[in-house]
Design goal:
alpha/beta
Amino acid sequence: MGNKVDMNTLTTIIIVVFIIVLIYIIVDYFRKAKRSRRGDHSRFIVESKKKDKKKLVRREFDLDVISDAQITINPHFKVVLGENNRPLTDLAAFSGYTPSEIRNAYGLTNISLDGTGETIAIIDAFTVPTVLADFATFDSTFKIGTPNNLTVVPLGQQSNDDWGLETNLDVQWVHAIAPGAKILLVQAADASIPSFTQAIDYAVAHGATVISMSWGTSEFVTEAAYDKHLSSDNVIFTASAGDVGGETNWPSVSSNVISVGGTTLDLSTDGVYVKETGWSGGGGGPSVYVTLPAWQQTYGLKGNRQTPDISCIADPLTGVPVYNSFGYMGEKGWFQVGGTSLSSPLMAGMITLANQGRTAIGKANLTNVAFQNYLYGTLGVTPDYSSSFNDITIGKAGAFSCTTGYDNITGLGTPDNSSGSTGFIADLINVIP
C-alpha cells in the first residue's frame, strides 16, 4: 500500500514538473517572438572601462524596463598603450601624425582658408578643469598661433577621466584643422541623452554652424524622437560612426547627421599621402530603425539608413597626439589617440573651412540636406571623383569589406583637396548652391 502511494506521489510530481516546464517554454517562446518582431534589439550592451582601465565591463539593460534617460552615452576614442599596458606619454615616442602631417595628407595646405568668422561647437560630457590650459599647450607645441579661440560652457560640475581625454581630443584637433575658427565647447552635465540634447540646443542657440559629436550608444527604439535636436537651418551635425566594426550607433544613424567613419592612414617618411584603408574598428552598417533617406535612395542604396557617409583617419596606431594634464589611467601629458572620435572633429573642421569660403562669396552656410545631396547625388555618381575624394577599397570591419563606391566602413571615402580651386572643399563652396 505504501509503495502505491509513493508511486502516485511520484507520478503527480512528474506531471507538475512537466506542466511547469511546458509553461516556461511557452512564455519564453512568446517573449522571444516579441523581441524578434522588434528586430531583437530590446536588449543592448553599453561598454565602460573599469577603474583599472584594462578590462571592459559589459552591462546589459532591458529597453522594456528603463527610460531613455538611463541610457549611458560613451566616448569613441582609442588610446595606444605602451609597456605594462600604460599610455604613451612621451611625444618623441609617438608613431602617429602631427597637425601639419594631417593637414598635408588631406590637402589642406593647398587651401588658404582657416575658419575665421565661423563657430564650431564641440559637444562632450562632464567638466574638464584643465581644458583651456591643455588647449594652449597643444596650440603652442604645434605653433598653431590662436590659443584663445576656445570658449568653455560647463552645464554641470562633475568631472570624468574618460570624458576629459575625449574633450581634449575634440577641441585640439578641430583647432588643428580650422585654427581661425571660434570653438564653443559645451559640456553636458553628465553622459545621459537629456543632458546631451540640452547641450546641443545650447550650441545651436549660440551661433554654432557646425556641431561635432564624438560619442554614441547602441540604437534604441525611441531614437527618432531626438531628431528635432539635430535639425536646424544652416547647421551641420557630424557624429562618429563608432569604434566596433560593423555596429551602428546613435546619433550617427540619424538622417539629420553626417556619419563619419574611420580609416588607417599611410604616409611616406616625408609626409606624403600614400593610401588609406578601412579601419578594422570602424563602426557602420544599416540602421535598425531609421528608414533609408532620399539621398541614399538616389545613390542606389537599399534597406534602412546606411552608415557611415564619409570618413577620416581613426586608427589609433596611425593616430594623433593629444595633450591632457587632467589625467587618464593615472597618467598625464601626451597621449596617442584615435577612434572615430578623431574623424568627426576633423570632418567638422573641413566643413567649417567650406563655410568660410561660402560666406566670402555670399552663399549661406551648408546644411545637412545640401551636403548629403551633394555627397550622394553629385559626387558619388560621378564616374571618376578622384579629384575630390579618395575611394577606399581595401579593409574589413566586422562583417563588412571596403569596395569601390559606397561601403559600410568608409562610406563614400575620404576628402581630397588637390588645390584651392579643385577638390572636396572647393566643391562644397562652388558646386552646392
